[in-house]
Amino acid sequence: MRAARNHISNGQGKDIVEKLNIIYRGAHSNPLYTANFDGVTWHGNTKISAQPGGVSASSPYNPSAAVLNGWLYIVYKSASSADICCAWFDGSKWHGGVKIKTLPGGISPQSNHTPNIAVYKGLLFMVYLDPGSHDVYTAWFDGTTWYGNTKISDQSGGITPQSALNPAIAAYEDDLYIVYLGKWQNWLYSASFNGITWDGNVKISDQPGGISPRTATTPGMCVYDGKLYLAYGGIMTNKFYTATFDGATWAGNTEISVQPGDIDPASSDNPGMIAFTPKGARFGEELYLIYKGAWFTDLYSCKKKASEWYGNTEISDQPGGISPASGYRPAVCVLAGNPGTQANWMSKLPDATLLGAINIPGSHDSAAINTSRHTPYACHNRSITDQLEFGIRLLDIRLQVVKNDDNTYTFNTCHGPIGSTGGFNTYQTFSSLMDECKTFLTTNDKETILALLRVDDWYNVPKNDPGAYTALQADLAAYPVVHPKAMPTLGGVRGKIVLYNGMNGTTGLGIPLSWEDGTEGKNANSSDDRSYEVYVQDKYDGLPLTGSVAAKLKLVTDAFGHISAGNAVWNFASAVWYGLFGVYIMSGLLSYFGEKTGANRPATFGWTLFDYPFNQYNTDTYGAMSIVSLILDSNFGYANYPNKFNMLSEHDEL
């Protein structure tokens, strides 16, 4: 039996809560609404325009939704044109509500119906029909930039899928699947994409399994119980059917009314569907269908748990007192709540613990923050204060040095020198970042923060300008900075910032720490002012064309083995692929830990730095997890995550 997945204690503070979210067009007008279900009670039924963010999202049809990098994205046809729009929710407020053609990428996707999206290999894929055409197109989004807007027939694979309506889309096992109506008929077809090549475009009735599913609109599709599930209305009836695919064979095409459970759901539109584990569920993950009524616009839900179906009940008759209604099936996705506070986790560790013996989560390019949207150089969507509150204790701080007209110096945070003249790659001032650290430690004086300083951009100053270093050292005097020569104990540095100097050998700027750029793993350069070894893995570029994520994951896990008594391991877990796309391994690293029980996982493995460290990934045993929550728990014997667990596919609604 699986553990309940949507209410998970993180052992140190607030729980992480998954909620089933629905996004839908109003019953009689174009504005989009949202509501959510926590496993017991429904909440919301509120226009997006009335929620924080000031975004006005409207469409003549339902949107589609998926979660990428911890944010909820919706795409939808514009209310005033065929342009496809995008909006996103960061857990606190909405952003966007704009046409994709206005976003980075320079593509202009259009459709006369609802586009559908799914997350596959860390990218948001969108599938749709171009206006006036039956050809199926795709576009994809890496969190920063949109690409594609290309017919599948023009992509690798030599297939030409065509449909009367936009296809459903879902990631299943290692492939991306689309299921769609035929161009002129109601037969369902499928095709798949392995990341390089498309395959299929074959009627399901001609595939192994001997079933012949037909429907009038786009089916609902998601992954549940290890299979690809479809839900759809029949041709001569509005009653729902389901079918499944196990990667080789189709099965089912069976009306829900004749399946165990004795319910008879029906609708004039096909349902939105998602796998979700409500709070207190006895059977683990359950399959939810959300749909409009057969004759009216009231929204209903039903669910399958174990082998039986339950529900077929208006949401207005369920706990919560809301009455959502729509003329179309809603978009459905599962979104984890904000990570729980981890402001005092170090306070539970003994004073005598050496810092190198603590598994510490860190943030790479910590101040490269954009809280409203992903940009090419941003690495985080949480402020420094939030990073610290949620458990980060190692900061990688990159500086821009500016010499002012009066010969004083200003220190800004940045991410590399590119774009500094335009200001789009500089972030907060260094002093404001340090103020946040000081304030955090004043409130949480049993914690410590480790910080590495490096200069990425000598803006208008000669490299290694002595005056700049002198000014920086003077600025640091206002903060609780220490730089001991020997590996400190936690008790000796509580309430302090342990500062590392990645710029020069000046001890006034921190403990000297430098290494071979882009190293796959070796000891840092020795220093008379540091009495312990530091092993560094920082391979950030030059990964293989294929298998870059696996290659980076191996470098990170190999570095775990270099921890030893009295030393430190700095392990950078992010990289770029051909200078364009981020390489993130958080899901793979969780899988690495999940393969073993807590007793058999690495007990000590050092300090690991991530981009977007609070992204949530779904597991079969513990629900939504972030790599930060697991690393923190490793310091306490994996008490909250003692059992093996497997990663689940991204939740996608179609």
UniProtKB/TrEMBL annotation:
Molecular-function GO terms, alphabetical: phosphatidylinositol diacylglycerol-lyase activity; phosphoric diester hydrolase activity
This protein's UniProt keywords: Membrane, Transmembrane, Transmembrane helix
PROSITE patterns: PIPLC_X_DOMAIN
Gene Ontology BP, a term: lipid metabolic process
Domain Phosphatidylinositol-specific phospholipase C X: 350-502
Segments traversing the membrane: 575-593
Signal peptide: none
PANTHER family per UniProt: PTHR13593, SI:DKEY-266F7.9 (PTHR13593:SF113)
Protein name: 1-phosphatidylinositol phosphodiesterase
Species assigned in the record: Varunaivibrio sulfuroxidans
